[in-house]
Amino acid sequence: MTTKPAAAAARATVYGYPRQGQHRELKKAVEGYWKGRVTADSLRSTAARLRRATWQRLADTGVHEVPSGDFSYYDHVLDTTVMVGAIPERHREAVAADALDGYFAMARGTQDVAPLEMTKWFDTNYHYLVPELGPDTVFTADSSRQVAEFGEASALGLAARPVLVGPVTYLLLAKPAPGVPAGFDPLTLLDRLLPVYAEVLADLRAAGAEWVQLDEPALVQDRSPGELNAAARAYRDLGALTDRPKLLVASYFDRLGEALPVLAKAPVDGLALDFTGPAAANLDALAAVGGLPGKRLVAGVVDGRNVWVNDLEASLAALGTLLGLADRVDVAASCSLLHVPLDAAAERDIAPQILRWLAFAQQKTAEVVTLAKGLAQGTGAIAAELAANRADLDSRARSPITYDSAVRARAAAVTAADARRSPAYAERAAAQRAHLGLPLLPTTTIGSFPQTAELRAARADLRAGRTDQADYEERVRAEVQEVVSFQEKAGLDVLVHGEAERNDMVQYFAEQLTGYLATRHGWVQSYGTRYVRPPVLAGDVSRPEPMTVRWTAYAQSLTERPVKGMLTGPVTMLAWSFVRDDQPLADTARQVALALRDEVADLEAAGTSVIQVDEPALRETLPLRAADRAAYLAWATEAFRLTTSGVRPATQIHTHMCYAEFGDVVQAIDDLDADVISLEAARSHMQVARELAAHGYPREAGPGVYDIHSPRVPSAEEAAALLRTGLEAIPAERLWVNPDCGLKTRAWPETRASLENLVAAARAVRAELAGP
Ligand code: GLN
Ligand code: ZN
């Protein structure tokens, strides 16, 4: 394929870049500042140095227009809250006294003042701080940070484009401030917010910005006519300003759908659109609205969220089509590169032939630059890059890592019946009751017990070679013993081994399954200064040998009571990893499910009669568009059932979910066909119990009665009161008593006290049910 040179030379750009620096300098500086070890001046100069290094790096790679204002000490939505002056009442004093300390107080809270709530940024694993707004909110413009950072980039001699969270997305992400009625719609504040954006835009124009980018990812979600109208009004008004830079409205993470004609008609100067994954639908939609005559199109053709090399020829073909649809086409990654690690070249433990398949922020930037060059100068100008890319893609497609014929054959042979448990629930439940002999309102925990500093140190010693495997395992066995003996003494009914051997519930399994790669430096921001290193699901998945059996069996050898086996489910194994892009997610999930199914079988064979398969991520992976949800839930629930359906009727399957509200996926929870589900519920006063009941959920459930996110110890009376509330929705024969989630982040003293109270609560309510 050859492309004709574009009329106006295509430019390469990105919307944002990882903030932390090559050695996570930002994390160290910010945390040092919190501890009083780093001064504010030194934090500011570290941050400025990191910004400069990023711009320089982008420019050296060949980016024509760098983003500014995408940097953040903590979170870009919180920065927007500062920019529009929407400081919550309770933080005003602190912000007025010291802007930086006030900023961190909003992010993290203080002894006396609660932070802003934190939640997931669309369907990524990045968390933002939720704006709190009300009818009395007064917006005031503070463009200082945006202007200063634009100035820093310009001072390097670079063309910079400030990037702002757009006004519609900002309001759609907000929630009513404490004390404001829940029915309050922040979008009603649009007319008050727009003049503030106008002021910021004018300031950036005065500072010399030619273009400003306004990010509106909220418009890729299903939006009501009223919301679409608000978007139309916002960009009509901002477009009509006379004293403004050129406006580029950006969307990403999915297709724009009905918002596309709205933005295409708006009097703005350009749109930035995602053309990857389901957002590829933007291409036909753009043609259908007649393109963007007279406007600039920034085409996000390099996936900004996965870690795989781009198919440059396919991207060039898409770009070629787009050339006819806008006045000028520039090339970008689909979204900010914040969501991928910094640089694949830093990975030393990954074999060089595999490393060539991976593209992190640095490599993606280079791909964008190559594509822009190809678009501007024709494919001849990038012949060498295209040949290398073709070779990398071929080696990936043909690799035995990517393609394991035994795994493929097994997955292809799966039938619907394989993913169905038999007999039906009622019969199973009777068999389990007879086999387990549990009391009414059985008590249990979610799996992990405190991950003590000593345990983490033991693991660090093992990694550093200071101890050997045998010593380490001895240490873990001692911990299992302690956890089991505590649970027996406390009087819990279904015990766990405590997960002392696990660093992380996904990583632990990823390390033992084929098909997964671990990175050494693949950190991505989860929130604030917290970074995670997701494993990379690169190839066909199988389980060479049992992963958890010896720990569960060891724990079971110490007690007469049932010990619950503990696995991470297939959906969560995908959700908290970088997944492959060369086959449907459903296929990858099925492979993981089959590997876990083998583990379930081995646990059962080793004498485990209760097996829990955790799926805390089931809700968060739900597609952004409602139209895509049924297909997702179908494969997700099938993968769970495939994992769990091979067991005998008397073996009880549990699952667990948390970190979300589940009201809109109760049908999917039902479709898992697990015998028992434990759910986070303490803070919402058993809300989920009522939702399950309203749905007619037929099986057993344990809505949490102990909020494990705080060191607070709930009293027995408090836990009993929650149990009684639970009983209003779920009959005693089907109600379990358990905490909200695992206890790994808690300390031992509060864990002991809380679980003793939980058992006391169960006993008290059992006595009430038995009558006088
Ligand atoms: N079994 C896991 C634990 O207890 C579940 C963790 C989770 O739901 N996030 O730690
Ligand atoms: Zn949990």
How would you describe this structure to a colleague?
- Strand 7, helix 9 and strand 8 form a beta-alpha-beta unit.
- Helix content is 43%, strand content 13%.
- With 772 residues, the chain is an alpha/beta fold.
- The N and C termini lie far apart (84 Å).
- The strands form six sheets. Strands 1-5-7-8-9-10-11 form a seven-stranded parallel sheet.
- Residues 446-448, 499, 505, 566, 614, 616, 656, 658, 741-742, 744 line the site of glutamine (GLN).
Shape: globular
The profile of the biggest β sheet is: 7 strands, parallel
Roughly how much helix do the residues carry, as a percent range? 40-55%
**CA-to-CA gap between the ends?**
84 Å
Tell me the strand order in the biggest sheet: 1-5-7-8-9-10-11
Beta fraction of the residues?
5-15%
Mean pLDDT: 96
Give the helix/strand class. alpha/beta
* Unreliable segments of 5+ consecutive residues: 1-7
Bound molecules: glutamine, zinc ion
Strands, count: 20
Q: What does the radius of gyration come to?
A: 27 Å
Helices, by number, come to: 28
